[in-house]
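User: quick one, fold this
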Amino acid sequence: AFVGKLPASKSMLNRLQLVQSYFPDFKINGESAADDVTLMRAALSGLHSGKTIQAGAAGTVLRFMALRASRLPGRFEFTGTARLFARPQEELTRILRQLGVQAEFKGTSLVVESAGWKLHGDTLLVPSARSSQFATAVLFNAWDLPFDLYVSLGGRPISEGYWRMSVEMAQSLGMKIDFWDGDFRIPRGQKPTRLEFAAEIDMSSAFALSGAAAVGGQVTLTDFPERSLQPDAAFSSQLERMGVPIQRSGNGLKIDKAKRLNGVAVNLRSTPDLFPVLAALGALAEGDSELSGASQLVHKESDRIQKMVELIRAIGRPVEALSDGIKISGSRMAPTETVRFDCAEDHRLAFAAAIFKVAGVDIEILNPESVSKSFPEFWRLIGCPI
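Assistant:
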């Protein structure tokens, strides 16, 4: 049984690191050893070195840093994994070119040449149909601009919950944002009105740990906010719907093993990162489950829909891929031999496979170290040998 505080949200920390890069006196409370946070810190510290910036497998690092670098005059080169550059990234060049910045993809690298932002036209069009991170990258790099910035997202952004988190964080720091009909304006010269921010514990990590507890143990999370800015905090209500015992007391959340899990139907439009663990729990539940609303899952560190179909079939449960999720039906049959599952270097697939391992499935997890992207302490905290 684990009792304690989890590392800070990597999503919040990377947004806050951008703020700190513009205002060095800004203080961040909260730490994480996640690869994404470490890569972001190294990228920011090496921004003026002229060296190639390593983004690894981190979409946030590439997207946030391409916009950050473009605020400065100079030539910047970014590199990362093949999968990172196979994910949706063309939006970056479309955004940067509107800002008068040259940007070109060359295999597994992105070259940015800039003289600073010089908006061509009245409004910056930010495509957000495949990821909300492009809009967040613009928002958190719009501090202290010498001109008003008008932005159009071209409709409702996908992963809307993460976009709302970005807006709430920026506003709580003092950024003025004027909204109308889905578009918005950031007035020139924006500076933080507070110089300190405490990042919450990482909610997607909390879900991975809580999901393991739901099938094989107990977890008590301390310093758990009553109201979280992170959309993934919805995990606790999803677990309750599945029949998992949950107790809240002050700033604590206790999760116990469920006597049985119930199937659920969940729209994950605002919380796609919950999908792999929730799908694993659904595969262990009694009754059908349907997870939908998250077509962007095919563009993550892996095609998470197809990989979860592969995993759930391997453990003996009927499952069907949907264009925006998954449908789990029938009843589970125990596999007749050891299940071998390749996580495809996707941290959230490793979390999902761990749910089965904790539940007693004979499973060999390949590339279990991929959890270091967001939650390197995971295997130690669930007490599960790999």
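User: anything notable?
Assistant: The longest helix spans residues 203-216.
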